[in-house]
Amino acid sequence: MQMPELINNVDKTLRDDLAAEVKDGSRLSVAAACFSIYAFQELKEEFEKIEKLRFIFTSPTFTTDNTPKEKREFYIPKLNRERNLYGTDFEVKLRNELTQKAIAKECAAWVRSKAQFKSNISNDSMAGFMNLDDKSYMPIHGFTTVDLGCERGNYAYNLVQKNVAPMSKSFLELFDQLWFDKQRLQDVTQEVVESIAAAYKENSPEFIYFVTLYNIFNEFLEDISEDVLPNEASGYKDSKIWNMLFNFQRDAALAIINKLEKFNGCILADSVGLGKTFTALAVIKYYENRNRSVLVLCPKKLSDNWNTFKDNYLNNPIAADRLNYDVLYHTDLSRKYGYSNGLDLARLNWGNYDLVVIDESHNFRNGGRLDVNDENEKLNRYSRLLKDVIRTGVKTKVLMLSATPVNNRFNDLKNQLAIAYEGNPRIIDEKLNMNRSIDDIFRAAQRAFNVWSTWEPEHRTSQSLLAMLDFDFFEVLDSVTIARSRKHIEKYYDTADIGTFPKRLPPISKRPHLTDLPGAINYNEIFEELMRLNLSIYTPTHYILPSRLSKYEEIFDDNRINVGFTQAAREQGIRRLTAINLMKRMESSVHSFKLTLSRIYELINHTIETIDAFDRQTSLVLDLEEIDNLEDYDDDDENNDFFTIGKKVRIDLADMDYLSWRSQLEDDQEVLELISLMVAEITPEHDNKLQELLKTLTQKIENPINGSNRKVLIFTAFADTADYLYENVSSFMKSRFGIDTAMVTGSVDGRTTVKKLRTDLNTVLTCFSPISKDKHLLMPDNPAEIDVLIATDCISEGQNLQDCDYLINYDIHWNPVRIIQRFGRIDRIGSKNDVIQLLNFWPDLTLDEYINLKARVETRMKIVDMTATGDDNILSNDEKTDLEYRRAQLERLQEEVVDIEEMSSGISIMDFGLNEFRLDLLEYIKANPSVERAPNGMNALVASNSDSPPGVVYVLRNVKGGVNLNGRNRLHPFYMVYVREDGEVEIDHLHPKELLDKMRFLCRGKTEPDLKLCGDFNRVTNDGRKMEKYSRLLGDAIGSIIETKAESDLDSFLSGEKISFFENEIEGLDDFELICFLVIRNS
To answer: For the segment 815-840, what is each residue's pLDDT rounded down to a tens digit?
Structure first.
């Protein structure tokens, strides 16, 4: 009797033995846990000789009685056994040769003719074994290349005993007994054939996109609960507002609801002109349908917009939705009494709102006190919001809207997010489930930004900043923000039903001289005189005698509102603002400048007269206004806490060194008199800037850029300048062209040359932009039309005036972001204009002179402060950096109109969010649960375009670790790389958002394979047999990941971190498993 033979799969492999034993007409019977097409490939020639293969899956596999997903301990192993059909974890190397398609096709054909598969459906355990004619082999774990001895696998040893007759007889009889047992086995041949066929069929691009999403985000599906998803039973999708939204707005609305339910807060930071208001209205409708109470907090200038959408007005496009939210103003948080927008603030139940929508939430970015307990304590608007609205009463969700949530520090963002978590980091930390607290994450991000901001401008790019930020920071932003740019929408959404943005013509720059008077003064000479001013009229507390200071610290509530925010510091801030404001007013118009000079002169003159009338024997209390005229300041200045905390200054002259103060006041009085004389003769006729504006308007009217469109929008920072322009422009346009002009400033009712037309904001804007403002509904019988509108920044946010195609900045706002926001009134998606024009008036100075002047004014005020405070810091590095950035931004604005996210001092949160992809997957998997069974290694083909050159996007999974040590790849263990056909990397693995956006755009909606592209590809690759080129590109993709990691390790080593270059070494292909790939080909 022949003794059993032991096959150790080292000296001799099971594959070699089977190859030797198989004869024509052999019958093979296998009982094993899984079957791999790569095992078939190894024995393909021998299998052609076999008459019949009978295969039993020893555990339930491909069975119809699917175990419920909830029983994951059974469901996941079954799914894994089925997926092993396309190769196990230890056949990665074979899969990465990309010949799976050809192998699967041959295997499926062979199975159809020669194989039958059955599966164990009982609870009985079955050991694996194999019979070939009269021989048996055992134990057999699976029928894979590892079990055949071709691959190493993770077996410590892989011994197989080979028995021959008569010892094999028991196994032959056992297999036959099992094979015909219908109680234990179910035929699954058809399911196996269909599953193998899935690996070689032509796939639609959309399917590959969702296979990618499923692999990367399937853990999200496990964590999701119905509680945090929009409840469609509420009927919000039947609402008028929902059906008015564009596709990208719907995506945002769903994501916002998800974030509000999960994290209690969200910032919608879509760029200017993308309809954040409408998106927010859809969210409001959702919560109102669920019987929730909603408050909208907005700047006063935007209240008409929000009121229109909830009131029963003819021009309310969503009147049918009967929205019922309350509208209050940001400034109402600083008041406890009085009426606002029809609501009695004294009786308002602030704590009863389930949802608060904060429009232009960047106005809250400076934060405030978080530990507020004293009922009598004065609070700024931020602290009041936290105390009375968010922390009090019902649990309040917070939706914040802002195109510019970040100015030049990440704390801006943190302060806004803190509103949603009640100022208590523990609340958000528990929800985010991070390893570090949100405070630590933002501190680390700010440190990275501080380092980055010291770099030379050419190295200070957004990409270099992104590379310095870590995974946790991206996760936080992804969790609680949504931010898309105009370019993002145009690039990654189908805009066929939306329309397009108009084309921006290159900006026009005008630099007129101050005046045409002979020997007249110029800008530089005026600024030189301004530098001599002390402006001590705004700093009376600096002259309080040291012995009396304690008395006034208590009077002024020093340190009670904001820590460190004393009356002296407040006054220094106001003086600085005023000094800079004199420059701004001079730039704006000679008229405004003269008014400001006069107001300051009168204030100083009155104060000197008061001092002169003072008798030491009696008490005389100075009753000064800190800010003597709000009209002198622009919107950004007015949002400063100086304007909201403490207005009246009452000081007894007996407590002051009033003689020193009087001397300083007198010096300023002389300077102001001199400057006033210098500009006194510049009348409108000799105001070069005004005359240049009139020429520009003439040129525009006589040579319109879109058909017969004659509309022009003129922006200025100051109401005084607007008034001056209206006086001169309106008469000129009426007499010369018969065109009507209007003015809106926000502070008083507007003005217009249209007789008997109401001059409220809504009426004026409706007549200026009749199509976008639905004039045919509101004023059907009124033919009035306004073609020239002069406005302050009261309409620079939240207004759609896209009927207009020409915008003039009569003065350049010192915050370049404001310039983009102004342009956003006419630069809007769906505009009827083909092109739009931006024209900027600049001072008659070089840009360097302009920026240096601002630096000198800042420095001058610092030096004055230094004498009073002992502060020896002239201009901080932050201020110098800010000035340098402003210079760079303004320089760009002379050449091009840039998007707002490119104007935000290097900090943009546009490209961080991945939530839309998760929601894509969530929606898809409801109707397509089979995506989880998709084999690895599949591909689809799409046509290349100008943004997507021919190449391949590979989706990989790291199977051995060691790549993402510094947490920079947010998708780890998944990696995506876009390689061009020449092997160069187009987009590397550290930009997953860009890659997913690219895939989404190329694949979404393409539900059928492109048969022409597939046919060409199959011819070139001989139906998937000749995949060397794509296997080589895969090697390039993996090589780029390894190379990037090596560079990162070296950078860390050179910066002083301890790095072992021998730990976690990545060898190459074997470390990554190919999930799927998208081939981009020329069509």
So the answer is: 677 787 888 889 887 788 999 999 99
